[in-house]
Specification:
7 strands; single chain; about 10% strand; Rossmann fold; 7-stranded parallel β-sheet; alpha/beta
């Protein structure tokens, strides 16, 4: 049986999408496929510098299609298994259906229960393909005016997909008007437990996932527990 494919997508950047994808892949013991070609993505967070290598295994595998060889995930202690991105993905012209078919084929080869796909913000063929392949699409939600406007558009454009909204970087006292707006906008969509605003996560230089830290301190454990809670809700949504 192939793995469950979980795609993390957002209409705009800056919503914590990559950190959420990274931690979910770690907590679920899955493979993280990085389709976000920006240098601030999961690949750099993991510690892999694609500019040091002539080859781009993910791009090569996508161009070969589902009949080709699946890219081999990179592994390291206390990090999720990673299929790294490459900046040349930005100029690729791979159609969305080929992306979807490839991800589904690879999910059957890697021997993991989950494949987590991090995507580039906004509309593009790679993201569209990852969403088509997904058993569940996770959308991080920031409780802010522009972010909620973008969410409204996503809920309309992707109404046919199975979505799980994750309130992310939520302050200690969330703005009531945006909490109410989320409840109204997402009345027909599942909403997961919130992830608090852990500002120190943005400054954290270590590559280890917080959900895989061996001896976490108080604040690390609090963040890890929140990510694990969302991971358990992903499992429940997929019938596990």
């Amino acid at each position: 049986m192939r793995a469950n494919i979980v795609t993390v997508a957002a209409a705009k950047g800056g919503v914590g999408k990559t950190t959420l994808a990274y931690e979910l892949a770690a907590a679920l013991g899955g493979v993280l496929v990085d389709l976000d070609w920006d240098s601030g993505g999961a690949t750099r967070m993991w510690g892999y510098d694609a500019t040091r290598y002539a080859r781009a295994p993910l791009l090569d595998a996508l161009e070969a299609g589902p009949g080709g060889k699946a890219p081999k995930p990179k592994t390291a202690p206390r990090r999720p298994s990673l299929v790294p991105a490459h900046r040349d993905l930005a100029a690729s012209r791979i159609p969305d259906d080929l992306v979807a078919d490839s991800l589904q084929a690879w999910a059957g080869e890697w021997g993991k229960g989950y494949v987590i796909v991090d995507t580039h913000p906004g509309a593009n063929a790679l993201t569209d393909g990852a969403m088509q392949a997904a058993d569940l699409v996770i959308v991080p939600v920031i409780l802010g005016a522009r972010e909620m406007d973008a969410l409204e558009g996503m809920l309309v454009d992707y109404a046919a997909y199975r979505l799980l909204l994750v309130p992310n970087m939520v302050p200690g006292t969330p703005p009531r008007r945006f909490v109410d707006r989320l409840a109204a906008d997402a009345s027909a969509t599942a909403v997961a437990s919130p992830i608090s605003e852990h500002r120190w996560l943005r400054r954290r230089l270590r590559k280890a996932a917080v959900t895989l830290e061996l001896n976490p301190g108080v604040r690390l454990k609090a963040a890890a527990d929140e990510f694990r809670q969302v991971a358990s809700e992903v499992e429940a949504a997929l019938g596990h």
